[in-house]
Each structure stands twice: as C-alpha cells, then as structure tokens.
Write a structure and sequence with these properties.
Elements (H helix, E strand, L loop, with lengths): L5 H5 L6 H8 L5 E4 L2 E4 H50 L1 H4 L2 H13 L5 H5 L4 H9 L6 E5 L5 H12 L4 E6 L8 H8 L5 E8 L2 H10 L9 E6 L23 H4 L9 E6 L14 E6 L7 E4 H10 L5 E5 L6 E4 L8 E2 L5 E6 L10 E2 L5 E6 L9 H14 L5 E5 L5 H10 L5 E5 L5 H7 L9 E5 L6 H13 L8 E5 L6 H8 L3 E3 L18 H10 L12 E2 L1
Parallel strand pairs: 3-4, 4-5, 5-6, 6-7, 7-8, 8-10, 9-11, 10-13, 12-14, 13-15, 15-16, 16-17, 17-18, 18-19, 19-20, 20-21
Antiparallel strand pairs: 1-2
Amino acid sequence: MEPGNPSSQCRSEVPTDQTLARFTGYPPPLVYVGGKAIDVGQVQSAIIHHEAAVLEINQEIEQLLAVARRLEYQKSRHMEEMRRCKGLITLARRIPPEILVYIFELCVDWGFPRTPISVSQVCSEWRAAAVCAATLWSHVLVSANNRNPYCRALLWLNRAQSAPLHVTVQLNGDTSHVSGALGVLLERRGQWRTLTIQSYGLAEVDGVLTVCKGAFPDLRSITVQVEQDSHSGRFFSDVNNDEDGVFLMGLRDSFSPAPLCETMAFKAVIFPPLQSLPLNLVNLSISLLPSSVNLRRLHIASLVGLVDQLRSLQSLAIILPFGENYEIIVPPQPITRATAPVLLRLNLTGPLHLFTLLHHLETPALMRLQLRSSLEPEISPHEPTSASLRECIGRSTPPLELLELHDVDLTEECFVFCFDSLPTLQEVRLHESDISDQVVQRLGTGACPRLRRLDLRWCGRVRGDALVSMVQHRSQSGDLQSLELITVINCTFIKDENVLDLARFTRCSLMIRQDDDYCQSWECCSNERYRRRLQLRKLHDLEMDHRHNIIF
C-alpha cells in the first residue's frame, strides 16, 4: 500500500486472520469440523503456499511451451528441406524429357488440350519439357466458352512453331467470339493437319466453313459434330431430300485446294448432303446421333448414290443410333448398282434392313465386312439380309478376310454359301448369330481354308463337341490352316469340358479383345465370374503343357 494514497487503501486486500491477530493481539480463531478443532491460520498458510507453487509451475510451463514452439518451428524447417531434397530425386523429375513429352502428348491425344498448361505447374523440369515441346502445343482448341480465345490461340501458335496443327473449334451459338482466333489460325493454314468442328447447330458450322478459304496443303482429315440442327428450325430426317442440300456445302468448296484431305467423320442427327462431300475422300464415317424425332427415314437409293459418287473410298462406316426405329426405304424397283472398286472396309450399324444395301453394291476389293444390328436380335434368321449378303459375295467375289455379324442371324444356307465362297477368310466374329453344327463341321472339311480366328459369343445352337471336332480336324489336316485362336463366350451348349478340349489343340480365349472389341462399350460379354470359377475348378484337370492355352 502506498502511503498517502487513498485509492491504494481502497484496493487493499481483505485482512486475513493473521493480520487481524497482529493488530488486535488475539490468536486466530479455531473452527470445529466433526468435533475436531482446525486452526484456520494454518489452513490459510497452506493455501498461500500452494498458490505460490502453482504460480511457479505455470511459469515453468510457459517456458517449456516456448521451447516446444521453437522446436516445432525447427522441425517444420527440416521437414520443408526434406521435401525439397526428395523432390530433387523423385521419379517425376528424373524421367527423361523425351519420355515426359511422349506422356504429355498421349494426354493431349486423349482429349485434354490444356495438358501443357496443367503439367507446367508441377515442377520446373515438367515446365521446361512442356514449353520446349512444339508438338505438345500443336493441338489448338478454340472454344466459344473461353474468356479470351484469341490470346489462347496466339499462345498455342507461338509455342507450336512450325509443327503440324490439330485444330478444334467448339461453337455455342455465336461465332463472333471466336472470329479473331480463327483469323490468326487461318494465317497458319499451311500447317493444319486435322480440323474438328463441334457445334450445337448447323448454321454455326456453315459460318466456320465459310471463312476457311484458301489452300490447305497439309490438311488430312475433317471431323464435324453437330448435336442438333438449328439451320432451318427443324430436323432433317430424309437423306433423299434435295432441299436439304443447302447446308455444309463448305465441306467441298471451302478447302480448296486440299489435296491430302482424304478422311472425314460426320456425327450429327442428320446425314450430310451428298453434294457436300469431297470427291477425293478415302475414309468416310457417318454416325447419326439420337434424335427426338419419332421416326426417321433413310433411303437405300441415296446410300447407293453416295457409294457410287465417292469412287476413291477405301473405308466406309455408316452407324445409326442404338435402339432407334429407322424406316429404311428399300427401292421398289431395281436400281443401278454402285461399284466401289477400291473399298476395303465396310461397317454398317443399324436396323437389319440397312444391310440390304449390300444387294446394290459391287465390292471386288472388300477385305473387312462388319454388320451390326442396332436393335434387339430377332428370333428367326433375317431373310433379306441373308439374300443381300449372298448376292454381294456371289457377284463381287471379294477377297474378304474378316466377317463380323453382331446380333445378325443368317440362314443356314447363307452361312454355307459364304464360307464356301470365301477362301481368303481369316477371321469370323459371331455375336448372337446362331450357327449350326453342320455349318461348323464344314469349316473342318474344307471351307475357309485360311481361317485363323473364330469368335463365338451368345451362340445358342452350336454344340461344344462339334466345335472341338472341327478344331481337331483342322489341326490334323495338311490343306487347312490350323486355328490360332478360338473365343467362346456365353455359348449355351459349350461346356467346361469342351473348353479344356479346345485348349489341347489351340489357344482358347474366354475374354473380349482389348483393342477394337465392339462389346467393350456395351459390357455384354464380361463373364468374369464364369472365368474365375472355371479357373479354380477345372484348370487342374488340364495337362500342364496346355494350361497356358486358355486365356482367362
């Protein structure tokens, strides 16, 4: 207490018993608890002692916490240095630049055009590899959804230098937002290798094609993807309608000259006008997208005209959407056949009546024929398809090497005729296309002497014994090519014992192919449970030398 300071006196503590005893001269009082006398002064002295001890402990705790914080800081510094040192020797930084660039290019090819920007943020080595790889920046994306497509295109072009350019234009109604980027790209049109136009409507595609004038000496392929037609406010459903030919004319007129542009892919709800397709096309793919139109028409006569017009075609794919009901207009009277003198690959995917196109084609060079139904399989064989296939093969006698039938059932007479007429056939793929034991036996007695691969899936008639007998006869015959691979998946009458017997003569696969298998997207032949069960229960019954012949 400060002398002479009243406020100090007001803030003084309440006097204890010892203080009162000192001023009054009386000893501290005693209290009785449970009949026992307790000295209040001693208790209060003990409290004061413990309070002082607690205060001292708190001070020591504060000192220790300060030491702990200092140690934590030192630990974090060491951890940071450890991460930095590990980063110097990590595998990502030790990969050779050429391998890094190859991996980055794969990412770009798989549809990630922003790869060079993304990988540049990983580390300095990746950034250096990305910046120096001109081919990595050659995939230029011009999108109407980007904030500044002009600056983006300029950056990509500067980094691409003189590498061939793969240009993708994504439109969303208004093309004015990308006009500047298209302009700077057209200044380098001599480097264009591929062009992809993705749009919601046909009018925007026409707008882009209109400005693509001049020579494109290195352009190889054009892809057009249109989700819906907004060109005239309606869907085009009839490929034989002449008034529909007012759109997409730039496909033939704009890129002139483009002597190397021989590949075109068209994905839309409509067929492109026949007069819009360049005459020098070698590879053409037309995929129709699902539509809200209940019934769409497709004229066989127009498809015949398409084949007859494009005489340089080597590969043709016409793919209609799965499950949609198309009205295939078959000409009531005979029409002039179309000759495709150099057509090597033909893929038709659609309703069964689409395959009647074969009746009107002459394909003397055809090597690969794939017929895939887009509807549920029918119970009985489809007579028009069988007749058309027989007519095409009998008239053209093509050097066919691959025949694939997916959910297409032929008559037994058609199977026999095809196998007897195709001595060059090397591979047959049948998916839910019932083939009888008698037809299979013909493969073991002289039909298809060069057959190397047989793929049977969901075939409900052929028996395993007939299949084993055929494979055995071919393996023992000197005039017939032995089967190198036979695939059996979900075939009703092919038992586990038949699979083991097949493995004694050739390789037997129970899996779909890994590269170009049509069933991968549908997941209709993923019989993993059966494969695992057979591997656990039956594999030990097979001789050790033949176990590797079964592909699980």
